[in-house]
Design a protein that fits this description.
about 600 residues, alpha/beta, Beta-Lactamase, Alpha-Beta Plaits, 6-stranded antiparallel sheet
Length: about 600
Amino acid sequence: MQKYQEEARLAALCQLKLLDTPASESFDRITRMASQIFNLPIAAVSLTDRDRQWFKSRVGIDHCSIPREKAPCAQVAETTEPLVIEDFAISPCYADSLLARAGTRFYAGAPLVTSDGYGLGSLCVLGTEPRQVTQSEIAALTDLAAMVMAQIELQHAFGRIDPVSGLATQTQFRDDLLDLARDHPSERRFAVVVDLARDDELSQFRQAMGGARVDDMIREASLALQTALQPARTAYQVGAAQLAFLSPPNVEQDAYLSLLRSTFGAIRAVSSVRFVTSVAIGVRPFTLGDVSADDVLRGACSAAQDARREDGAIAVFSAANDMAHRRRYRLLQDFGAALEADDQLRLVYQPRLDLATGRCTSVEALLRWRHPNLGDVSPGEFIPIVERTSLARATTQWVLDAALDELAEWQRSGSSLNLSINISATNFGEADLVERIQLGLLQRRLRPERLEIELTESAIMDQPDRALVMLHQLAETGVCLAIDDFGTGQSSLAYLQRLPAHVVKIDQAFVRSLLSGDSSDAVLVETMVDLAHKLGFRVVAEGIETQQAAALLARMGCEEGQGYLFSRPLESAALVAWLAEQDAASAASIKAA
């Protein structure tokens, strides 16, 4: 029974994750107070391990631990009762102990007891002269020991230990790094973040196997990491599927990266989920005291994202890449405010011309963002970020409303110009998208054929079944459908035949290569035009910049063109002026003829 109780006590101590952790000011403050109350040079928070007394906090002691044998703190832990030794020299139990031989003559210890009744060790004070204690001194020491236990349980209960993995949390990582910086300033370290799976992999894993299996994966990974690090090192859980740890001090980078590769290669080889998740590892070099704990962890996480090139990859922190990650996050964070502001987002319009007549038949609405601090942000930068988030719906709705308002204004002025807008793959998940488009047209009394919806070939193939259903619903409303960036996706001819689209837009990369001198480029474009016609599509060429390219495309049978040869994207007022100029030039040409 006694052996069982000792194993249970040791298990309780182990679960608290205190052993071999860095010093902490929250404990040191109490230890100093105990030393001052007793006016003694030595005090410690002493934890009773299997074969040692390990000091979580210490005053006047150079070493971190002593053997457990004949250590009075062990007796305090076992009995959970205070212990006073007024003179080691006359103590029948401790006269020949290590402490007595080192010159200790006085000891007083109050137990550290868990709420379950397990003794972890003691808060103790020691002196080199015999002395007596008063009841008030013992009461004070007992109160201070209770404060130590309250601190221990506070750390464990409130965000210090992850309930699934049993690892220390990000909060503890932050505090441990602060303590290390205090005790070992200017020491070189590496922070390592192990990203166990991408967000989409976790989501699919959870859907297929359940949340409990995801927890099992985290526990398996944390156990493997703890085993690899051994007891002297601490592992942390810093994200849903992100583990972290610190390197030993002053290791050489190349050698350490090689060690990480071999270690995690071995762990990965026996993982139960190695075929359904991908691991990425980020490494952040830093000097203790020079970088904040939050920046250290964020930098390692940033490097882990850089490592997502391939499963098991390791990447070292890059300031340039980190700046790009931070900019993307800032843009995403600020774009929500931009949607609510009235002076940041706007539409510009790029004309699309009939290549045979030169007449402008429609315009494409393009979103622009003028950030209040960063200035104009390229749509090629912010749109890919936004369309992968919940902001995609609000963004599409903003563009739809603004574009239809403009189209209604043109209709009132007598213009027959048509308008196209773009939607993303994310919009296919919106069950009410078709109804919102219909409502927008009805509210402004616009005929559906005046509106064209553009979507990329790759977006369609991202969710082909859902896309096909929605495209048929849109086609039934009378809205025109266009496949943008034709030729760059992965769709099959069989699938393209099923799409109820009216127009395909040949990507500008193919158009710009027309005049490269390589005859195969022209053959490729001509084949694409011919194929599109045979599938029943009208063809628009994007990125036309020269008259030669426009003439060549017209001879190939391409119906419409769009590009800087004709016009750059224009603000609404500039578009109206441009159209007037085009009409005037056309009228003059007819009169001259």
